[in-house]
What does this fold into?
Amino acid sequence: MTNVTRFLNSAQVRGWFYQGLVVSAAALTGWYLVSNTLTNLAKRGVATGFDFLGREAGFEIGESLLAYSAADTYLKAFAVGLLNTLAVSAAAVVLASVLGLLVGVGRLSSNWMVGRFATVYVESVRNVPLLLQLIVWYAIIGRLPSPRTAPELLPNLFLSNRGIKYPTLADPGSHTPTLLALAAGIAATVVLVRWARRRRETTGKPFPTLPAAAALVLGLPLAAFLLNGAPLALDAPVREGFDFAGGGTVSPEFTALFIGLSVYTAGFIAEIVRSGILAVPHGQTEAGLALGLKPGQVLRLIILPQALRVIVPPLTSQYLNLTKNSSLAVAIGYPDLVSVSNTSANQTGQVVEAVALMMAVYLVISLAISTYMNWYNRKLSLVTR
It folds into this structure.
């Protein structure tokens, strides 16, 4: 057999050849679809391209993290929708993770009532469509008292059918030193935790990380706040007519979407946490108890660190699902990326471009989440030497 024959019969060469064929076929199919779409749009006189992003949008957005008006461009409107999507998704990821952890551990509790309650929660939220849950939460918020009779949960914190009203800082710029001190404290805490972990692994001596971290994260901002003169002037909401004046607002749409996404996704995360804990051999629990650790310490120091290797991969899928499920916000009127894109497409007639932008944005977000979670999963993997 000649070298050329051996080369052609190589499994690696054949693998590259067939993969090249598949990629070429996919590229040709994509080129055909794009060119065919552009040709058909041109025949019908439909404008194409993304030049419309530089034109005036001409519509208002009810809720925005950026300063926005109808005189701004479509590009800025898309940016507002994207930030709204990222804000509600990030907040829901945090609450869903915490709630899912508590419910997942609760399902394994020896307390009969806690275990049954957690089971009912999981079986209920996972088997009711998310869209229906969002509508129910939005309807519940709409049945809350009006601003005139809204209860004051805490001083200057009101809950009504207009959302949650809370006090804001009257002069945010005066708190810049405090925010910088908070950022410095968080950065120093990260460095301290890594150093303490290396020290414990090297010497076996624990370091009081929690008190030190609390001193850095809370003490530094407090010191900066006091040295800056303790500026604490607040813009508090007050009842005025049929609504509130002053303060900040968490809209009913954001609240309903945030609660709905968190509660729904937490049901799936709870099952992931439960399966991850059950994957750890029971002997690990017995060993921890034999060392004199309390059950809570065994769970926190022994079981959960090992269970994370099982929990993180499926947890990534739930974070991706939560982010993509946020597109259902259009059903309750929250101005997310999908809502802004739909309005832009209706006004400009450039539906293909608007949908392409949505697809590209969700693809980038999903790839970013996957990349981070895969990196974190590799950090948790066991290293064999």
In short: The chain has a mean pLDDT of 85. The beta strands are 152-154, 157-160, 163-166, 168-169, 234-235, 238-240, 243-245, 248-250. The longest helix spans residues 74-107.
